[in-house]
Amino acid sequence: MSAEPAANSAADRAAAPRLRSHLASLRALPILVLLVAIAAQATLMTSVNADRQAGSGFAMFSSVDFAGSRSVVVTATYNGDVVDVRLPISTTDQVDGLLRSPTDDSAAQLARDLGEFEWVEQDGRIRANTDGTNIAGFSVTVRRLTADGHELGSEVLAHAVAP
Amino acid sequence: MTAASSSPVSLPWSVAAAMKQVRTPIGCVLMITAGTGIFMGAHWSPLVPLMLAFYLVTLLAPSAARNSLIWFAIAGAWVAAVMIQPSAMEDHVYLYLAWLVAIAVGLLDRDNFLDEAGRQGRYLLALLFATATIWKLTSGSFISGAALWTSGLLDDRMTPLLNLAGISSESLTDARPQVTAVVASDGETFDISLSSYSSIALTLLALGTIALEALIAVSYAAPDTSRLAKLRAPLLVGFGFVTYAIVPVLPFALLLAVIGCTVARFERRTVLAFVTMVLVAIVRFATL
Fold first, then answer.
1. Cβ of B50: how many Cβ atoms within 10 Å?
2. Residue B5, Cβ neighbours under 10 Å: how many?
3. Which residue in A35, A43, A56 has the most chain B C-beta atoms within 10 A of its own C-beta, making it the best mutation to test that interface?
């Protein structure tokens, strides 16, 4: 590696004179940027159970609970029976969002949106089909893994039932 | 009229002079950091052409790339990216953003750039690894090895690590539908039921990870005159070897390498060690 060239040129020195005069205070800026990002993610993780593997938390692989280990369970009452719901592909982004940041409000929104589709029964489940019928009463539950030593269980993170 | 007797074509910049600047420590930091941004652009593709153009600037017009304002502007573009597409961003993007700001601040006093950027890099790495350590200590499922087992169950890249701990790929395949059933219903449980060897191996792996990350945090937080400071590069390179030989996150490896080299003031052996670490990530990525 060659030696550094001579000191800054006059043009370089004039590039950011105002900022240069604030160098002492700007020195705290990089660490503040990272600190704020970490604090924001930590707040989201503890308040709305945001995904540990995403965002600025640096919490990768630290827990059994992350978006990939969670589940969204959707059921509905169809012809008097409670049946599982096969989610339409168009709701994929909504479901991903629920897995990353599950809240009762976002679960309720998905339950309401499912009511907009028409449904048919197939193999003990219902799936969206334009020749189907409208039904109501969708139940959306987001669950996460828990661990007690080496025993895995699960608990509810968010739940909503559309009227 | 002045004749350009030595050069028939007058270029706006001299290739030789540009190459000379690129080969300095500052030139390397700027060029590798800008290049790392191309890979970071995988998180939001509109930034790829911007970072590619910026990389070319650091390579072909290195004097222009030493303007602090340009680095603040690039950092601003990344702030916009994390605001527009937060769900696509991972933790190393935020470290990259903070490092861009660190470079911008360092370039305000270019005569002392390596001192300033190195100090900023130390603080950033100390904070990053301290945070990672705290999450693992407080999660409640990391020290037992349950978190590593679950990660391996759902992320194929982790399988070789679990195999080393005596956990077969077949047992993971068998467990997958059972764990899926546990998280889909109320009241069901699943016992990971590891052999005593696997149980001890996973716990030691978890404790070793915590110890390594905590030591990295402490060594980078310690003053340069401390004995711990001598451990910085070996610990960080060791972390990179272990981590990226399993889960090859190339942008993160590149970023840790350029920050680690800057903190070490581009000491030759340290640079070689970090280059090897990045090569490990590349080989692992290519053979996934």
1. 16
2. 6
3. A56
List strands edge to edge, sheet with B190-191: A119-122, A125-128, A81-86, A71-78, A139-148, A151-161, B190-191
- DSSP helix/strand/coil, B266: coil
* CA-based nearest distance B47→chain A, Å: 18
C-alpha span between A106 and B248 (Å, rounded):
34
Q: How many whole angstroms separate alpha carbon B164 and alpha carbon A41?
A: 33
Instruction: Name the residue in chain A with its Cα closest to that of B133.
Output: A59
d(CA A150, CA B179): 12
Average pLDDT value for residue range A10-20 = 60
Verify whether the Cβ–Cβ distance A12 to B63 is below 8 Å: yes
What are the structure tokens assigned to B2, written together?
């002045």
Does the model's ipTM exceed the 0.95 cut? no
pLDDT at A8 over 70: no
Question: Which amino acid makes up residue B139?
Answer: S
The closest alpha carbon to A84, from A115, A127, A118, belongs to A127
Q: Chain B residue with minimal CA distance to A98? A: B87
What confidence score (pLDDT) does residue A132 get?
87
Mean pLDDT of B32-40: 96
Domain ranges of chain B: 139-209
Cβ–Cβ gap A63/B140 under 8 Å = yes
pLDDT tens-place string over residues A84-98: 999 999 999 999 999
Q: Do B91 and A12 touch (CB under 8 A)?
A: no
By Cβ distance, the residue of A23, A56, A151 closest to B189 is A151
Contact A50, A44 (CB under 8 A): yes
- Separation of CA B264 from chain center: 16
Please report how the helices B25-40 and B250-263 are oriented relative to each other, as an axis angle in degrees rounded to 10.
160
Q: What is the mean pLDDT of residues A128-151?
A: 92
**What residue in B sits closest to A52 (Cα-Cα)?**
B135
Cβ of A34 within 8 Å of Cβ of B185? The answer is no
State whether residue A126 is helix, strand or coil. strand
Residues written for chain B: 288
Task: Round the average pLDDT of chain B to a whole number and report it.
Answer: 92
Q: What is the mean pLDDT of residues B111-140?
A: 96
Across the interface, whether the CB atoms of A153 and B189 are under 8 A apart is answered yes
Query: Which chain B residues have a beta carbon less than 8 Å from that of A20?
Result: 108-109
Which residues of chain B have a CB within 8 Å of the CB of A33? 94, 97-98, 101
